[in-house]
User: Which sequence fits this backbone?
């Protein structure tokens, strides 16, 4: 689809009428400003419907629309789940040499990201973070054409972090967890980076080949106990699902009084409760865990983490993040950006270690793909 | 400079001639500069010393979308950039708000301008005239609701006018035509005259009209050729003038000049971004203005147009065609949409300021 056709909003008069009349996100001052810019002032308590009808009949400029759109936009600054992957076997180059190779791709990254038609890109910035990492900041828009024109465009920001792992002969890539970014990183970034090295291999966390539900549990169990710098405390929430299939077993279950496909538990020590093992024995598997752990360095402060597969049935689309620091009143306070990024990285590498530990000999569940 | 009686008359005549071009109705001179009895003295004149609302002049038109007759209770004021202040502006707007509140209830006013069974709407219109050609003051930025959103325009210490304290009745409107709007209107009128002189626009008042597209919620009513340029259009970002197919003889060569239907879009923004033009072109296209190979000429009128305005327009057109091109065919063909900047703006309206209370 040619998204540039939608890269500027152009609502019709119904959109305008509906937005000004009903949407209280637009304050009275904002509506008064739209009119005052045309030299129009009106009495206090003038009905919104009258104002909406009037304004929707005018000729407008892009500035009118941007004002309305930005007034309606709500910024979401909460930290979100990320996805990650690593690229290994990088010809034994130093971090500096690896970063130089990335820098040589700067214009290619920008051009390719800007010109692709999968996502409507507004802006791409390639940023050098000294000798530590490189960052590609993307501003993009996603559309929902079932919504009013002012709400149908959602402006998003994403930072794709590329970081050499010190002494590891590998690169770690991290980006916000979303299907569109997953595709974008694979097709527009990773493909170029891979070409810079002779025989790199890619590691992506997936349990596609592991069908044993106890091994799947083992994956999460290892992961939550192995975050560098943290002492595992307890699991707070655990989510299980049962793969949807048309096997005769399932039909039998469906014909009973009720059927369960997904379930969640909240509490403490959930990995060890017998109810969980009962469900695992009936074909359920874990796909999401929220747990807390104590910092070994930070005065025993508790932190809350989450790891999940966004495609639960297949245990694919691994995403994770540090939810924050747990306060005395049990509320979760968001950590700094730097702290979050550092600990997110630790979750990823704990997942890699966990995956390797449950691998059967000779198998490569960690999707260690030679390219 | 002292106003003479003729300066006020010039202001009234000039404003009438100008607004007639925009298809506003005007009234006899005998109905100008009258006072009308207040219908709500307890609220408007609590000290009891006065009971009249002053009126300079009235204009009216039938709105193209609603079919409703709109009357403008008009106050003509001149100002100097050094003298205008929020308190003076406030007095003028407050007085207009009170006047329109009473006008529809005043039988004499109804008889003078309409009929006793008046069913129209009365709005206030502050017509701010300039006599010194100085446009450094942004009048609208003196309104608190504008200053709040444009802090860069409103540098610190200047007081603003709180529009909520004007005591305008609910559902009533007061319009301000500031000098930049008046320059825009005068320049449009002169530009059309100039285009006619160079045989680029047809002669005759019946050969042009102000274009209003049919929208989803708003459909035009009545004879298109009689539609006025409404106050909202005149104070908005652009105005569309259409011309009908016609023929006329060139007096110099005796040749027949044919005019094909087309549009002029008078554009009032500074043109500082490509996006604003992309948006404009998309709007014009949505209004079906490029159908049947009609030509559209965008003519920018701005006191300080952006240095890249023309480039921005041309780039926006290229971008638009690139975006919407299907099988190599552009939605807007070469030469169909053109851009001009009008450099000779009609900046002076009055030879001298108006007198007394008429000068802010």
Assistant:
């Amino acid at each position: 689809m040619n998204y540039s056709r939608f890269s500027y909003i152009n609502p019709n008069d119904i959109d305008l009428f509906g937005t000004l009349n009903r949407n209280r996100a637009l304050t009275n001052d904002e509506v008064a400003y739209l009119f005052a810019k045309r030299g129009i002032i009106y009495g206090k308590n003038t009905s919104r419907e009258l104002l909406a009808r009037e304004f929707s009949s005018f000729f407008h400029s892009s500035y009118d629309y941007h004002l309305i759109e930005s007034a309606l936009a709500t910024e979401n600054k909460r930290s979100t789940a990320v996805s990650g992957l690593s690229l290994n076997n990088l010809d034994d180059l130093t971090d500096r040499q690896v970063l130089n190779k990335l820098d040589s791709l700067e214009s290619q990254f920008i051009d390719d990201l800007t010109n692709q038609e999968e996502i409507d890109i507004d802006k791409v910035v390639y940023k050098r973070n000294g000798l530590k990492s490189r960052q590609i900041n993307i501003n993009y828009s996603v559309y929902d054409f079932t919504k009013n024109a002012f709400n149908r465009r959602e402006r998003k920001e994403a930072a794709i972090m590329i970081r050499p792992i010190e002494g590891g002969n590998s690169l770690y890539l991290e980006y916000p967890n979303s299907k569109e970014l997953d595709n974008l990183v694979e097709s527009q970034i990773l493909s170029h980076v891979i070409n810079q090295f002779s025989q790199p291999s890619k590691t992506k966390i997936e349990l596609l080949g592991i069908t044993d539900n106890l091994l799947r549990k083992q994956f999460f169990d290892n992961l939550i106990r192995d975050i560098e710098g943290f002492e595992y405390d307890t699991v707070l929430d655990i989510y299980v699902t049962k793969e949807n299939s048309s096997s005769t077993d399932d039909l039998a279950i469906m014909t009973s009084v009720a059927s369960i496909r997904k379930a969640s538990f909240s509490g403490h020590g959930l990995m060890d409760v017998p109810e969980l093992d009962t469900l695992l024995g009936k074909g359920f598997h874990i796909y999401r865990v929220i747990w807390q752990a104590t910092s070994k360095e930070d005065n025993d402060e508790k932190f809350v983490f989450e790891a999940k597969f966004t495609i639960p049935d297949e245990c694919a689309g691994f995403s994770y993040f540090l939810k924050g620091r747990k306060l005395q009143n049990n509320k979760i306070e968001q950590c700094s950006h730097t702290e979050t990024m550092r600990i997110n990285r630790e979750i990823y590498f704990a997942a890699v270690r966990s995956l390797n530990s449950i691998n059967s000999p000779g198998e490569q569940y960690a999707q260690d793909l030679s390219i | 400079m002292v106003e003479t009686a003729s300066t006020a008359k010039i202001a009234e005549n000039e404003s009438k001639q100008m607004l007639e071009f925009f298809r506003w109705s005007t009234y006899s001179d005998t109905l100008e500069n009258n006072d009308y009895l207040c219908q709500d003295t307890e609220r408007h004149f609590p000290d009891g010393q006065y009971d009249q609302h002053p009126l300079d002049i009235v204009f009216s038109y039938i709105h193209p979308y609603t079919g409703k007759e709109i009357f403008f209770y008009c106050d003509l004021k001149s100002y100097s950039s050094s003298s205008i202040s929020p308190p003076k502006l406030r007095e003028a707007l407050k007085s207009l708000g009170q006047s329109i509140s009473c006008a529809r209830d005043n039988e004499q006013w109804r008889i003078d301008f309409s009929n006793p069974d008046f069913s129209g709407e009365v709005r206030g219109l502050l017509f701010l005239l300039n006599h010194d050609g100085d446009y450094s003051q942004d009048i609208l930025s003196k309104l608190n609701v504008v200053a709040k959103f444009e802090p860069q325009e409103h540098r610190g210490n200047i007081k603003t006018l709180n529009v909520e304290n004007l005591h305008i009745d609910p559902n009533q409107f007061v319009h301000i035509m500031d000098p930049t709007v008046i320059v825009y209107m005068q320049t449009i009128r002169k530009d059309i005259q100039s285009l006619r002189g160079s045989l680029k626009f047809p002669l005759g008042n019946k050969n042009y009209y102000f274009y209003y597209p049919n929208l989803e919620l708003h459909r035009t009513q009545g004879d298109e050729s009689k539609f006025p340029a409404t106050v909202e259009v005149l104070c908005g970002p652009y105005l569309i003038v259409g011309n009908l197919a016609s023929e006329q003889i060139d007096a110099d060569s005796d040749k027949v000049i044919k005019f094909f239907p087309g549009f002029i879009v008078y554009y009032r923004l500074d043109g500082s971004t490509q996006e604003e033009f992309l948006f404009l072109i998309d709007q014009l296209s949505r209004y079906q203005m490029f159908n049947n190979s009609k030509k559209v000429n965008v003519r920018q009128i701005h006191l300080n147009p952006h240095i890249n305005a023309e480039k921005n327009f041309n780039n926006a057109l290229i971008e638009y065609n690139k975006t919407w091109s299907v099988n190599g065919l552009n939605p807007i063909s070469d030469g169909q949409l053109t851009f001009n900047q009008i450099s000779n703006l009609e900046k002076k309206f009055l030879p001298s300021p108006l007198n007394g209370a008429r000068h802010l």
Remarks:
- Chain B is about 30% helix and 20% strand.
- The CA atoms of residues 97 and 168 of chain B lie 5 Å apart.
- The mean pLDDT of chain B is 87.
- Chain B touches chain A through 49 residues (CB under 8 Å).
